[in-house]
Request: fold
Amino acid sequence: MTLTDMSATERSAEHAGTEAADALTLGRQVRERRIRLGLKLEQLAEAIDRAPSQVSAIENGKREPSLPVLRALAQALDCTVDELLASEAPSERAALEISVERAQRGPVFQSLGIPAIRVSKATHDDTLRAVLGLHQEVERLHRERAATPEEARRANTELRAEMRVRGNYFAELEREAAALLESVGHDGVDVGPVSQLAIAGIAQKLGFTLHYVNDLPHSTRSVIDRRNGRIYLGESLPSRDARAPILRALASIVCRHEEPRSYGEFLRQRVEANYLAGAVLLPERATVERLREAKAQRQISMEDLRDAFGVSYEMAAHRFTNLATEHLDLPVHFMKAHESGMLIKAYENDGVRFPSDALGNLEGAAVCRNWTARTVFSQSDRFNPWYQYTDMSAGGTYWCTSRVEKAKEGQYSVSVGVPFDSVKWFRGRDTPHRTRSFCPDERCCRRASDALTRKWSAAAWPEAATPTSLLAALPTGTFPGVDAHEVYGFLESYEGNRG
Reply:
């Protein structure tokens, strides 16, 4: 079963996610029922065997309860799970509070860089309506300025929101990965790199042979020929690094992908392919066991994960985000940033506020120079990981570990971070490095000093190095960014006995 195949009911049941009600509405349902029953926060927490802080986070819409916790809440509050998941707010006042909270957590409000108001019982209805009205007007103006938003960025934002609800964990793909490993005699328990031979065996079990060629189309990482049962890869790939491209190619078969009908579907298929590759190369059971041991020793490390399974640092970091929340109860964020400061990829479920535009798009946004993802580039020691605490202007402190990697497009950093309360489980928590970020306030790191501005503002005239993708975010064709003419010609040349 793929992400596309899952029904709303299955997603809601598996992740206590909420197609019927979001976290804010659920939180207000819990709070109003608790107050109606005359229960104190501590009493409800004791009834469901959770800390009062966890119940408070649920009531404030900052934490989505798991299905067992949801059931316990329903029992303690003398109601059903369906009643807690009701899509309507429990009262008119609650509906107003929810609307204001949702607006303040949205990308338009956050892009303004102004502090949010604390919504409490003492906040007058007129104040809430005024804040909501102003927000709606600002949102309308932003929509007018971006009347034709790029389909690619919008689809990516929607997909990221779904991944956040699921904790970036896809149980159906974990099952597919386990089945593939089992088909070649790998039980998924042993810690250690999954061999190239095992990956080739998986391809064979699925009816495909591997062919390394020197004329692979430049716009592709691999080409799969479903008619003749062949997977073509560049012959320059190191044997170990060929494992991921092979698995990504096979994902189209395992996940039953068809030609994408939209950019959103194309992105979803790419997420599934990358996830499946990571789930095979870092099997769930073995990886979770290793992570739990590391957590018990307070020594969680991306480098250890990378070395144990013989994968890239980026794949190890990605895989950690798949499993951290589901199995270790750790909120986490992931960032990939280019040396220019541009954000390439990002994921979070720990509340960190990534830079974005008013529509919530992250890719292409400028990362604060004081964040770990940027400060790592100035370090002379590229052998050891860089650890850093960052105090955020919006509140809270985050700890990150980061590494610089190389690609044909230049250098980029891969960073994994957690809130301060979770850092006790990680190696590198004793780092003395600490910065403070005031972004999105331009005075933090984007505006030159007054002295330099006075000296150069009238004399400087730079030419922007505009990336070509800026004006072509949605390339034409079935598979965006791939030259179909070149791919089809390539396959034609290898038809028959060649390759």
In short: The chain has 20 helices and nine strands.
